[in-house]
Design goal:
By secondary structure, this protein is an alpha/beta fold. The strands form two sheets. A six-stranded parallel sheet has the order 7-6-5-8-9-10, with helices on one face. A four-stranded antiparallel sheet has the order 2-3-1-4, sandwiched between helices. The chain is built from 16 helices and ten strands.
Length: 421
């Protein structure tokens, strides 16, 4: 069985391709069930965020190519289209990669904490789809423990610049004073909530939250003094916005070029600043071609984020050392799964001896032998059978001077405090 991590991310693939292979929460469970039925796939987990789509799979020997073929086929892509954009890690490297992802070391924002929550969500979806067995389940539990330790023992999370913060920072560069800006947030998930928090700290003049579920929009808007609207009513409110920040789980754009054209006309050509931090994209790419509209996508934020990256590189090196150690420990546990358990073998042999000798003692009683005679036979014979092979090996070790075996035997029988020889 081989553990494989296969995927693409913000460093290897453009957003136009990432959105084609993204999985939303509703699609993940059926996709996992489909993947688990592929020949040779023994367990699977799918992690899909705005910056990455990754498969973590355990496959039988000879099935290492199956996950990559399935990914392209599932998304109805031309065969080979993904090849130059995918990365693959096997066994120990796959474990290290998962640890790096969950601790934020592989994120666009070095050390960002949101990814751990997304890994936990992916774990829950895999559990819901019954696509996990002991090896991957254990890996996920180990991953959560490693992420907690990295957060506790290093400063990887100190002064982290999140995607949400970066979006607000860009808006601030366009509008020197956000206190004069009306900001429209589209969505109501964690990223949008972080964005709303940063905007509240900047004292944005007005905050509008649009979401498919009006109740969620009202709850978020209420926490930060904003106004909630249903996504269906977005066209009527778009012209009010100086700044638009979008992050939903929609598979189709929620802002079309036609909608934005009408809004710009209603604003009498007053510029609009837009940030689309969703994958798949929430704002049609052609919106960026319009005059008086400044559209930034998730990949456009990278330069702003990289400026802050260097301050956390020392902490990242410390985190890397923790990850290497813990990855080795997980792989040791994994290798042990394939080993025969000597304690189990010893117990099974002892039970066979016990049953054989017991049957003979019972036969003695049936022939009229006394209970004392039968019990003495049982105790003497069973002791000899159980100790015959160990005693023979220890005699050989004594004659040959095999001190390793002699010390191991002393530990096994709880007599390691007594000198040998």
């Amino acid at each position: 069985m081989t553990l494989i991590a296969l995927g693409l991310n913000h460093l290897t693939a453009p957003v136009s391709l990432r959105e084609q292979v993204a999985f939303d929460a509703d699609a993940t469970v059926p996709a996992l069930r489909e993947l688990s039925r592929e020949p040779g796939v023994e367990e699977a987990l799918i992690l899909s965020t705005c910056n990455r789509t990754e498969l973590y799979v355990n496959v039988a020997q000879g099935a290492e190519h199956v996950p990559q073929q399935w990914l392209g086929r599932h998304h109805q892509l031309t065969p080979g289209k993904l090849d130059e954009f995918l990365y693959r890690h096997d066994e120990l490297d796959a474990v290290r990669h998962m640890f790096r992802v969950a601790t934020g070391l592989d994120s666009m924002v070095l050390g960002e904490p949101q990814i751990l929550g997304q890994v936990k969500d992916a774990y829950q979806l895999a559990r819901d789809s019954h696509s996990l067995r002991a090896p991957l389940d254990r890996l996920l539990q180990h991953t959560f423990a490693v992420a907690k330790r990295v957060r506790t023992d290093t400063r990887i999370g100190a002064h982290t610049v999140s995607v949400a913060f970066t979006a607000v920072r860009l808006a601030e560069q366009v509008f020197a004073d956000l206190k004069q800006a009306c900001v429209l947030l589209i969505g109501a998930g964690d990223t949008i909530e972080l964005t709303a928090r940063h905007l509240a700290e900047k004292q944005a003049r007005r905050l509008i939250v649009a979401n498919r579920t009006l109740e969620s929009a009202q709850e978020l808007a209420g926490r930060y003094g904003g106004y909630a609207v249903a996504l269906a009513d977005l066209p009527q409110h778009l012209a009010e916005a100086d700044v638009v920040i979008a992050s939903t789980a929609s598979r189709q754009p929620v802002l079309t070029r036609a909608m934005v054209e009408r809004a710009v006309a209603a604003r009498r050509r007053k510029p609009m600043f837009m940030v689309d931090i969703a994958v798949p994209r929430d704002i049609e790419a052609s919106v960026g071609e319009l005059d008086d509209v400044f559209l930034y996508g998730i990949d456009d934020l990278r330069q702003v984020i990289d400026d802050n990256r260097r301050s956390r590189e020392a902490a990242a090196r410390e985190a890397g050392a923790i990850i290497d150690l813990q990855a080795d420990r997980y792989m040791a546990w994994r290798r042990a799964l394939g080993l025969k358990n000597p304690a189990l073998d010893m117990r099974q042999s002892a039970e066979v001896y016990r049953d054989e000798v017991l049957a003979k003692a019972q036969a003695m009683l049936a022939r009229g032998k006394s209970p004392d005679e039968a019990l003495n036979f049982l105790a003497h014979t069973l002791t000899n059978k159980l100790l015959h092979h160990p005693s023979a090996r220890l005699r050989e070790a004594t004659l040959s001077g095999d001190m390793d075996l002699l010390h191991a035997a002393s530990r096994l029988y709880g007599r390691d405090d007594e000198p040998i020889g």
